[in-house]
Amino acid sequence: YKRQAQNSSPNSKIHSKGIYQSSKSCAEIVKDLNSIGVLDKSSESEMSKIESKKKTGCGVMGVGGFLIFLAIAIVSESDAAGGGVGFLAILGFLLLASAFFYNQNLSDKFKEISKDEFSDYRYLVANELIPRLGIDIDPNSNFEIKLNLKEFPAIDPSGQNLSENTSNPKGERKFKTTQEPILTLAGRFMDGTKFNYEITEFTSAYGEWFYYRAISGKTKTKLRARKRTRWIAKLRLRYKDKRYDASSISLRVLEGFAQIPQGARLKKVKNGDSELTLVSVTDAIKQKIKLKLNTNIDAALESMKEHEGSKALLSSMSTMSFFSLYQALHSCSTKK
Q1: Quick check: helix, strand or coil at residue 328?
Q2: What is the 8-class DSSP label of residue 115?
Q3: What's the confidence (pLDDT) of residue 206?
Q4: Most exposed among 10, 156, 157, 302, judged by the fewest C-beta atoms under 10 Å?
Q5: Average of pLDDT values for 263-276?
Q6: What is d(CA 165, CA 207) in angstroms, rounded to the nearest whole number?
Q7: Cβ atoms within 10 A of the Cβ of 186, count?
Q8: Where are the strands (E) in the chain, listed by range?
Q9: DSSP code string of 1-24
Q10: Residue 224 and residue 306: Cα distance in Å, rounded?
Q11: What band does 83 get if pLDDT is binned at 50, 70 and 90?
Q12: This prediction's pTM
């Protein structure tokens, strides 16, 4: 695994363009995830400071613009304006220009730092699950992890990531669906059982803006947007036949072992070819927003982040998936 630096921070080398991918021991991965958390919070703090500085810069730009306007007003009112007017105009221009370039530099810095700002729930779910799995994994063995720290759906050849945009003189409509694997794990437990685990995030979003006639008679714009987010977790265990014999477990019995947290449900179980599979899915998180005098659909959809509060649900669903399948597997152990 080759690491690539994102900015001057040493911890930013942990990920490459928002992707953390590695093959290490549990202890080393947990250490990396803790570093990712520190990096994320540090970036959020720096970004907040930059936003505050940009507001100051905007204030200076306002003062500069006011001085220029004042100089123009004095000249227009008096034909015998003195040198003080020219000084006001020059001062205003200098303030306006310097504040503009100051804010531009801050914007570039903000963009660079934001590369290390992540969706908290993604690395927190991994950071809670992996130490629990590590209890049954040889501390000297490695397992693979791929964690998407940001929300940017990868190119999906199956066509699940779609975007449709319709514009007309009366407004605009936009529809987007995404399918994004946010966490993938693969490894081996001490009894020789191999596991593959994946959490996939699905979103469906719709937004539109249109003109309407206000009570005052003026034509204004209104924006409406809604978003649905759900997650599917899939766990597959590949066991050794000499240690377990799960071929006789019916699907109904296997379903009986499944423990699913509130807010999620069992989607499918499968038994065959020395494998057990469990798939669970969360209920959809529905969000909607209405805005007046706004036509930015993308920004409205981006602002809907209530799904980021689902860390506890995803963590619980992940832990219960492993516990349920392993409990079923141990019920048919050949070494009793």
Answers
A1: helix
A2: G
A3: 95
A4: 157
A5: 93
A6: 10
A7: 15
A8: 19-24, 143-148, 162-168, 171-188, 194-213, 219-238, 264-272, 275-282, 285-292
A9: ------SS-GGGGG-BTTEEEEEE
A10: 17
A11: low
A12: 0.84
